[in-house]
Design goal:
The protein is an alpha/beta fold and about 750 residues long. The chain has four domains: about 5-345, no CATH class; about 395-480, Transcription Regulator spoIIAA, CATH 3.30.750; about 495-545, no CATH class; about 550-725, Beta-carbonic Anhydrase, Chain A. α19 links the parallel β4 (about 405-415) and β5.
Length: about 750
C-alpha cells in the first residue's frame, strides 16, 4: 500500500508551500476582482480536495495567475456568483473529460501556444497591477492600461508606491541571500506590511470578512445567451485543465526516485472535483500551479500528504489570524503579482522553441492575448500552429543532378498538391530524351502529385527518354498505377535492420567500410543512429534524463551474442542490466570476494525499488566451456581463472545432480544448471532471501538458445526450462506473477 504521508519530509515541505501560497492566493483574488476570501477558499480546496483525489502526488493546486484574466472578465460580465456557477460547470466538464480518458489529448496543444498564453497573461497582469502599485485602479483592457500607465506614473506618488517598490526589491534581492530557504513572497509581503504598520501608512489594505463563508450565497445562473455561457465554461475547463496537465508533466520530470508518475486522467478528475467544490463554496477556479509545485518538490515532499497539509495550514491561518491578514497592503500584493507576471514571461521556454522554429507561435499568441483577449489570442496561436504544422507535414524537397550521362531526381517528404509546382519545375528542366532515375523517398503521395509525375513520365518517354522510378519506403506510385486501395509498405533494398550485426547489412552499405578500422565502423554506426534513430528516441530519453524507474534487474553474460533489450523487446529505462563473464553471482562469504554484482542488486532493490531479478544464461557459453574443461585452457589468464572459481558450485551441481533432461549436450546442461545455481547464490544473502520469502522480490531464471534464437523460462517445480508460450490465458495458473515468489521461477537452495 502506498504511503499517504512521510512525516519527516512532508510536514516541513507543506509548511514551506503554505508560506508561498498564502500571499499568492490573496493577490490573485484581488487582481481578479473577486472577494479576497475567494482566493483562500480556492487554496484550501486545491490543497485538500485535489490533493486527495488528483493523480499527481506532488503537484499543488490553487488559484492560478494564468486564470486571472478569464475570471476578471467573467466577473465583470456576469457577476461574482454567476462566475462561481461557471466554475462549477467547468469542474463537471473536467470530470467528464477525465472519465472519458482524454487527458493525453489535451497535451496535443502546442507548448508554444501554452507558454505564449502564459506570457500574454503575464503582460496583462503586469499592466493592470502596476496601476495598483501606483495607487490607482486598473483599466478595462490591457491596451487601456498601457495607454494610461504614463499618466499614472507622472501623477501618482502616494505611499502605496513606496510599499510596492519595497516589495519588488525584496523579491529580487532575497533569492541571493543566505536565507533564501525562507520563501521570498512571504518575506517581501511581511516587510511591506511591517513598514506600513509601524509607519502608520494610510493605504488600501486587505478587507477580510470575519468568516470565510460569511458572504456565501448559492451560485446563480448567469443571465446570458447559452453560446456565451458554454464558451465561458469550456474556457475555464480547458485552460485550467491544460495548465494542470502540463504542470503534472513538468513535475514528473523533477520527482524523486520512488514517487510514482502522474495519472493524468485521474488528475483531470481531481481538478474537476476541486473546481466544483471551490465554485460551490464561493472560491476562485483552481489549477495546478508550477510555482507551488516546484516549491513542494524542492522542499523534499514525497507524498500527496504535503499537498493536503498545505491546504489545512491555509484554513487554520484564515480562521485564526484574520486580523493579521487585514494589515497587508494591496500595493504589496500587486507588486507580488507584477513580479509573478515577469516570471511568466519565461525566456527559457522561448530558447527551447527556437531550434524548432516555433518562436513565432509564442509571440503571436502572446500578442493576441494582450491585444484581443485570452480566448481570441489562444485561438489565433492554435490556428498559426496548425498552419505551420500543415506546412511542415507537406514540405517536400526535390534534388536534381546529372551524373554519368543520367539525370538523378530525389524527392523527399510528403508529396501533395502543395509540392507539385516545385516538383514540376524540377522535372521540366530535364532535357527531352535523357535517361532519368527518379527516387521517391516519400511517406505520402496524393492524387495530384501522382498525376503530375505520371503525366510528365508519359510525355518524357514519348520523346525517347527513359524513366526508372524507385520508391524507397512505400510504393505509392506503383499502387496508384495498379489501382490498389492502400500502398503496401516496402523496405528499401539498402535499408539496414537495426538489430542485425554490421556484417549482415546490405553490401552497398558495407563497401565503404570494408577497409575501415573497428573504430571507424563504430563511428559509422553512431552516425547511422544520429541520422535515423536519435530523433525518434529523443523524447523518451529527455523524459528519462531526470530519473530512471526500471522494472527489472537483468543479470546476464557479457557474450556479445546476448542482447537483453532485443530478446525482451524492451527499451530505454526498462532494464537495469548487470553483465559479467558467465552471468555469475558470488555467494555470500565467498573465499574469492567480489561485491560488484551485489552492489547492483542492493542499488536495484533498495534505491530503484525493483521487484524482479532475472538471471539469464545462454547456450555455447565460453565461460561454462572453460569451467567444463577444468580451466586448463585459461590458465594463462589469471584474472579470468580467479573469477570463474565462482562457478565451482555450478560444476559440482552439474556433476552430482541430474540436470535438465532437454539439454542436448553436456555444455548446454551446464549452462542451464549454472542459471539455477546463481539463483540459489542470490538466496545466500540473508536480507535478500527474507525479501524473497515475503514476496517483495521475485527471482526469475531465463536461458537463451542461440541456435534457435528462442528464450526459455525456468520452472522451479519441474527443474527444467520451458519454452515461453506465444500467449498466456488469463486463467493460466502457471503464469509468473510479479512479487509472488511461489508462482514465479525462484529455485530452491541446493
Amino acid at each position: 500500500m502506498k504511503r499517504f504521508l512521510a512525516p519527516g519530509r512532508d510536514v516541513p515541505a507543506s509548511f514551506v508551500v503554505f508560506l508561498v501560497a498564502m500571499p499568492l492566493s490573496l493577490g490573485i483574488a484581488v487582481a481578479s476582482g473577486a472577494p479576497v476570501e475567494a482566493g483562500l477558499i480556492a487554496a484550501i480546496v486545491g490543497g485538500v480536495v485535489v490533493g486527495l483525489l488528483g493523480g499527481s502526488p506532488l503537484q499543488v493546486s490553487g488559484p492560478a495567475a494564468g486564470l486571472t484574466v478569464i475570471v476578471a472578465s467573467m466577473i465583470e460580465t456576469y457577476g461574482w456568483r454567476a462566475t462561481c456557477a461557471i466554475t462549477m460547470c467547468g469542474g463537471l466538464l473536467q470530470i467528464a473529460l477525465g472519465a472519458c480518458r482524454v487527458a493525453r489529448t489535451a497535451l496535443a496543444v502546442s507548448p508554444a501556444v501554452v507558454h505564449g498564453m502564459l506570457a500574454g497573461v503575464g503582460v496583462v497582469l503586469i499592466l493592470s497591477q502596476l496601476h495598483v502599485v501606483m495607487g490607482g485602479s486598473p483599466q478595462h483592457s490591457a491596451l487601456a492600461n498601457l495607454v494610461e500607465l504614463p499618466q499614472q506614473i507622472l501623477t501618482q506618488h502616494s505611499l502605496a508606491v513606496s510599499l510596492g517598490v519595497l516589495t519588488i526589491a525584496v523579491l529580487l534581492v532575497w533569492e541571493r541571500t543566505p536565507w533564501r530557504r525562507v520563501p521570498a513572497p512571504l518575506v517581501a509581503v511581511s516587510a511591506a506590511t511591517g513598514v506600513a504598520w509601524f509607519g502608520g501608512f494610510d493605504v488600501p489594505r486587505v478587507d477580510l470578512p470575519s468568516s470565510l463563508l460569511v458572504h456565501w450565497g448559492p451560485p446563480s445562473v448567469p443571465d446570458a445567451a447559452l453560446p456565451d455561457l458554454v464558451g465561458a465554461v469550456v474556457a475555464i475547463a480547458l485552460v485550467a485543465g491544460v495548465e494542470s496537465l502540463l504542470c503534472s508533466v513538468a513535475i514528473d520530470r523533477m520527482r524523486p526516485v520512488g514517487v510514482p508518475r502522474s495519472d493524468l486522467d485521474r488528475e483531470l478528475v481531481g481538478q474537476g472535483a476541486g473546481n466544483f467544490v471551490s465554485g460551490l463554496l464561493g472560491g476562485l477556479p483552481v489549477a495546478g500551479v508550477i510555482v507551488r509545485s516546484t516549491t513542494n518538490v524542492r522542499a523534499g515532499a514525497l507524498t500527496r500528504g504535503s499537498t493536503v497539509l498545505h491546504g489545512v495550514w491555509v484554513l487554520v491561518l484564515a480562521l485564526a489570524c484574520g486580523a493579521v491578514l487585514e494589515q497587508i497592503p494591496l500595493a504589496a500584493l500587486a507588486a507580488l503579482l507584477v513580479t509573478l507576471g515577469l516570471r511568466m514571461i519565461d525566456r527559457a521556454h522561448l530558447r527551447g522553441l527556437r531550434p524548432h522554429r516555433e518562436s513565432l507561435i509564442y509571440w503571436v499568441t502572446m500578442g493576441g492575448v494582450v491585444v484581443l483577449g485570452l480566448g481570441e489570442g489562444v485561438l489565433v496561436g492554435i490556428g498559426l500552429a496548425a498552419c505551420l504544422a500543415l506546412r511542415r507535414l507537406t514540405r517536400v524537397a526535390v534534388r536534381t543532378e546529372q551524373r554519368d550521362g543520367r539525370w538523378h531526381v530525389v524527392v523527399e517528404g510528403s508529396l501533395t498538391f502543395l509540392g507539385v509546382p516545385r516538383l514540376t519545375a524540377a522535372l521540366t528542366r530535364i532535357p527531352p530524351g535523357a535517361p532519368v532515375d527518379l527516387d521517391l523517398d516519400v511517406d505520402f503521395m496524393d492524387n495530384a502529385a501522382f498525376d503530375a509525375i505520371h503525366t510528365w513520365r508519359v510525355s518524357h518517354e514519348r520523346l525517347g527518354g527513359r524513366v526508372d522510378i524507385d520508391e524507397i519506403h512505400e510504393s505509392w506510385y506503383e499502387s496508384a498505377m495498379t489501382g490498389e486501395s492502400s500502398p503496401p509498405p516496402r523496405k528499401s533494398a539498402g535499408s539496414p535492420r537495426w538489430w542485425a550485426p554490421w556484417a549482415n547489412r546490405d553490401r552497398r552499405q558495407l563497401e565503404p567500410l570494408e577497409q575501415a578500422s573497428p573504430r571507424e565502423i563504430l563511428l559509422a554506426g553512431v552516425r547511422e543512429y544520429h541520422g535515423s534513430t536519435a530523433r525518434l528516441v529523443r523524447p523518451i530519453m529527455a523524459e528519462l534524463s531526470m530519473a530512471q524507474t526500471p522494472d527489472h534487474l537483468f543479470i546476464t553474460c557479457v557474450d556479445s551474442r546476448v542482447v537483453p533489450n532485443l530478446i525482451t523487446a524492451s527499451g530505454p529505462g526498462d532494464l537495469f542490466i548487470t553483465r559479467n563473464v558467465g552471468n555469475l553471482v558470488p555467494r555470500h562469504g565467498a573465499r574469492v570476494p567480489d561485491d560488484s554484482v551485489m552492489a547492483s542488486v542492493e542499488y536495484a532493490t533498495s534505491v530503484l525499488d525493483i521487484k524482479t531479478i532475472t538471471v539469464c544464461g545462454h547456450s555455447q557459453c565460453g565461460a561454462m566451456a572453460g569451467v567444463l574443461g577444468g580451466g586448463t585452457e585459461i590458465e594463462h589468464l589469471p584474472q579470468l581463472s580467479n573469477w570463474l572459481k565462482h562457478a565451482n558450485h555450478s560444476l559440482d551441481r552439474f556433476l552430482h545432480e541430474p540436470g535438465p533432461e532437454d539439454a542436448r549436450t553436456p555444455l548446454a546442461r551446464l549452462c542451464q544448471v549454472n542459471v539455477m545455481q546463481q539463483l540459489d547464490n542470490l538466496l545466500t544473502y540473508p536480507w535478500l532471501k527474507r525479501r524473497v520469502e515475503l514476496g517483495e522480490v521475485e527471482l526469475v531464471g531465463m536461458y537463451l538458445d542461440l541456435e534457435t534464437a528462442k528464450v526459455h523460462i525456468l520452472d522451479p517445480e519441474q527443474g527444467k526450462f520451458l519454452s515461453v508460450p506465444d500467449s498466456v490465458a488469463p486463467s493460466d495458473e502457471r503464469a509468473p506473477r510479479r512479487g509472488d515468489a511461489s508462482r514465479g521461477t525462484t529455485s530452491s537452495p541446493a
